């Protein structure tokens, strides 16, 4: 039905980033994540350097910036909240702003009402996030200058310099990591990624952990997602034909109708798993046994160069952290 | 009018270049029709039947079901339409989820607001119509054979008592005996209840034996709407639509080429072939 749905965000292009070995990309991402968290607090220059890496990756991927921004959108709420928490919680440094906040019956009622309306009509709105932010700003304004009513409670909302700086730094950190991991998933096929993971986990074989089994499990799980998605769709439609419409029923009915989806999905999943196990066994798959590969992964010159550059940056950062020289 | 399509187009995405349905127009009465839909895989058969009970909504043209215009609208409730037009998907046994056969068949009527007693009565009637023995009603549907499970699933749609029943390849995966039994039951149901039955099939023998009217889909277009005899007698069409002849017709054609048999009308079913052979023998004498 939905043949177009492929799991993951992989988008095919003929670019430098796509040709880069998945192992290099994976190692780079891991190093970047560690590196970004090792950057000393509020050191914006180093964060800027770290920021350059995903920017370069984006430039060399031939994929429009829009796709990357889309992945940021999903985490925008988390970023906003961590920023707000920093603003409220961090009371170091210079006092920047003092907002006396006054709660009255009227303004609380208005804000609550506005929020309720927002959550009801949210489904039909464009720019949800923007509207939500505007709503928050409006609410703050309303609490700042109450129009009418008896003041129940009032306090001063204080914003300190460090709160703002640290909040921004935190957002920057998350930003870099999200962009970097998005450029990995956008330019690497899920199968390549699991192969890379298997290669990376090889050292675990020394302590008798069969990493190939885990890699196989991951690739099977990834492979099953579109299939199960299609099956879910089919069962949903079949039950909808029997009057179980998830869009047009009350909540109580919907819970009962959930069962009509879940049970068939369990049955189908187990049946498919059984069939797959038989098929794998018929082709001589023995868990943990040595297997040959159709596509051998080989490092190219460009792979070594990218890996070298990332390693160099990482080592420089570590040395700085250890106090060899001042960062 | 039961189902009426006027120049219906369908695309999965707005920007998609390929159309799953392309200017499809036809109408089907709400009573006493037995329509079979043919076409190769990917020709748009399943897409078309999903338009018939509002699971998919047309991108262009007009779909009218029981004089209700099916359009993308918040006001339009699709549930009443599904009450009139029941759709049984391919491999419907996967939709079974309840602990007993009776409970599973009752699921549909209960969703459409019937009380427990009414639903039970409807379910029992449906099971009887489709030939599920009453001692199976309290059994778990998951322990039944494949053919019986399929009947339970079809009963699940039949219990809603729709005016039009659509089945997507109901006989696929059944053994020859099970196929014939199920087809006989469907014909029987059609004659008893005067419901319109629409089914998708790839089995030309079933088409030859049971169809009154045939719709042929090819690359999203409706290319044929007429009787079985006419369809199978036009060989250039058959080739064009990638359709086979029924077994009896193939045999008859082979015999004719060898000069062993002569006929005016291509025999499509076993009994027609039998008559042709017997008559041919008499003529020679």
What does this structure look like?
Chain A is mainly α and 327 residues long. Chain A has helices spanning 16-19, 22-38, 44-59, 65-74, 76-89, 105-121, 128-144, 161-187, 190-200, 211-241, 251-282, 301-321, and strands spanning 95-104, 151-160. A two-stranded antiparallel sheet of chain A has the order 1-2. In chain A, α10 crosses α11. The longest helix of chain A is centred in the last third of the chain and has 32 residues, at 251-282. Chain A starts with 15 loop residues before the first helix and ends in a 6-residue tail after the last helix. Mean pLDDT of chain A is 84; it is low at 1-7. Chain B has 285 residues and is an alpha/beta fold. Chain B folds into two domains: 3-244, Rossmann fold; 245-285, no CATH class. In chain B, 40% of the residues lie in helices and 19% in strands. Chain B has eleven helices and ten strands. In chain B, the strands form two sheets. A six-stranded mixed sheet of chain B has the order 6-7-8-3-9-10, with helices on both faces. In chain B, strands 2-1-4-5 form a four-stranded antiparallel sheet, with helices on one face. In chain B, α3 packs across α4 and α4 crosses α5 (146-158). The longest helix of chain B has 18 residues, at 176-193. Chain B is globular. The mean pLDDT of chain B is 89.
């Amino acid at each position: 039905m939905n043949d177009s749905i492929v799991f993951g965000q992989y988008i095919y292009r003929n670019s430098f980033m796509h040709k880069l070995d998945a192992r290099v990309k994976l190692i780079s991402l891991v190093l970047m994540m560690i590196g970004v968290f090792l950057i000393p607090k509020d050191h914006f220059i180093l964060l800027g350097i770290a920021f350059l890496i995903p920017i370069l990756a984006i430039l060399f991927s031939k994929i429009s910036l829009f796709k990357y921004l889309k992945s940021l959108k999903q985490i925008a709420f988390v970023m906003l909240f961590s920023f707000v928490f920093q603003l409220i919680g961090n009371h170091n440094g210079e006092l920047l702003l003092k907002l006396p906040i006054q709660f009255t019956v009227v303004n609380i009622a208005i804000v609550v009402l506005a929020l309720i309306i927002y959550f009801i009509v949210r489904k039909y709105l464009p720019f949800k996030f923007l509207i939500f932010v505007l709503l928050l700003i409006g609410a703050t304004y309303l609490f700042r200058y109450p129009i009418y009513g008896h003041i129940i409670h009032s306090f001063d909302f204080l914003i300190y310099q460090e709160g703002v700086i640290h909040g921004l730094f935190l957002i920057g950190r998350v930003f870099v990591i999200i962009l970097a991991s998005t450029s990995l998933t956008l330019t690497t096929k899920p199968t390549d990624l699991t192969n890379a993971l298997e290669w990376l986990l090889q050292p675990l074989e020394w302590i008798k952990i069969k990493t190939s089994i885990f890699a196989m499990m991951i690739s099977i799980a990834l492979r099953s997602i579109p299939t199960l998605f299609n099956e879910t769709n089919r069962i949903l439609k079949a039950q909808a034909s029997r009057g179980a419409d998830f869009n047009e029923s009350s909540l109580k009915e919907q819970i009962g109708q959930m069962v009509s989806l879940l049970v068939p999905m369990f049955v189908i999943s187990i049946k498919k798993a059984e069939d797959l196990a038989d098929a794998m066994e018929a082709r001589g798959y023995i868990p943990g046994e040595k297997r040959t590969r159709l596509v051998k992964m080989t490092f190219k010159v460009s792979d070594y160069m990218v890996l070298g550059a990332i390693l160099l940056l990482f080592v420089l950062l570590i040395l700085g952290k250890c106090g060899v020289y001042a960062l | 009018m039961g189902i009426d399509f006027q120049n219906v187009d369908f695309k999965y995405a707005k920007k998609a270049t390929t159309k799953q349905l392309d200017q499809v127009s036809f109408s089907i009465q709400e009573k006493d029709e037995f329509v079979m839909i043919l076409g190769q895989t990917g020709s748009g058969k399943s897409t078309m039947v999903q338009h018939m009970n509002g699971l998919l909504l047309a991108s262009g043209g007009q779909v009218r079901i029981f004089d209700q215009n099916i359009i993308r609208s918040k006001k339009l409730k699709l549930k009443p339409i599904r009450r009139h037009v029941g759709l049984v998907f391919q491999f419907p046994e996967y939709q079974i989820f309840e602990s007993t056969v009776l409970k599973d068949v009752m699921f549909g009527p209960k969703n459409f607001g019937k009380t427990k007693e009414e639903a039970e009565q409807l379910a029992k009637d449906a099971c009887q119509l489709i030939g599920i023995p009453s001692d199976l009603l309290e059994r778990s549907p998951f322990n039944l054979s494949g053919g019986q499970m399929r009947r339970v699933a079809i009963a699940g749609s039949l219990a809603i008592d729709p005016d039009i029943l659509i089945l997507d390849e109901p006989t696929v995966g059944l053994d020859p005996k099970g196929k014939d039994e199920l087809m006989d039951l469907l014909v029987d149901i059609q004659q008893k209840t005067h419901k319109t039955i629409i089914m998708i099939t790839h089995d030309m023998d079933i088409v030859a034996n049971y169809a009154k009217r045939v719709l042929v889909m090819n690359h999203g277009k409706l290319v044929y709407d007429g009787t079985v005899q006419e369809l199978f007698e036009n060989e250039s069409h058959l080739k064009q639509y990638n359709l086979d002849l029924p077994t009896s017709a193939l045999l008859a054609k082979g015999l004719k080429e060898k000069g062993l048999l002569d006929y005016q009308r291509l025999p499509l079913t076993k009994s027609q072939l039998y008559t042709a052979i017997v008559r041919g023998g008499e003529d020679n004498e």
